[in-house]
């Protein structure tokens, strides 16, 4: 899995985790939120969708840094299928990221101690009470929470509806 960072360039998921741990170690008293959000945009004849998954490290009151993975998926014909694929990609990315955060890193670029972070992951969903997606809110939110993550929907889901959305359109 490769991610793009506006400030750090191309990174593996292991490098993203190392960057997060390094930032946390450099500012031990700061409050952080770790956010994963996925958005999609139909392309062409509507059977191809561009997906973008964003990992956002929000340092409360001091901005954020983010990392985005973008790819194209074919044969997605329904909005329901896209919404559940977005949720699945966020769950998958969250799980893999947590594994890297728990292990820590021994890369000399990031001299940080091992250990998992003590903050929960928020999964931001591009669904809300208005529009066609409202019918799946309960089901998708329950799925996210059953996997141990906090679920956020619109208008509180900027990880998906703003950050990831920006990368589905280009």
UniProtKB/TrEMBL annotation:
It comes from the Bacteria. InterPro entries: Phage_KVP40_Orf299. This is Ribonuclease H-like YkuK family protein.
């Amino acid at each position: 899995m490769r991610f793009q960072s506006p400030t750090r360039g191309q990174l593996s998921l292991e490098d993203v985790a190392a960057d997060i741990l390094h930032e946390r170690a450099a500012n031990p008293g700061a409050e952080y939120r770790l956010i994963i959000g996925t958005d999609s945009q139909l392309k062409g004849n509507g059977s191809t969708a561009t997906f973008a998954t964003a990992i956002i490290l929000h340092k409360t009151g001091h901005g954020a840094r983010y990392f985005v993975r973008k790819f194209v998926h074919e044969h997605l014909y329904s909005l329901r299928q896209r919404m559940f694929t977005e949720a699945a990609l966020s769950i998958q990315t969250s799980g893999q990221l947590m594994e890297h955060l728990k292990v820590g890193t021994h890369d000399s670029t990031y001299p940080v101690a091992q250990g998992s972070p003590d903050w929960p992951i928020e999964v931001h969903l591009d669904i809300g009470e208005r529009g066609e997606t409202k019918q799946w809110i309960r089901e998708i939110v329950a799925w996210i929470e059953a996997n141990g993550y906090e679920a956020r929907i619109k208008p509180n889901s900027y990880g998906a509806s703003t950050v990831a959305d920006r990368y589905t359109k280009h």
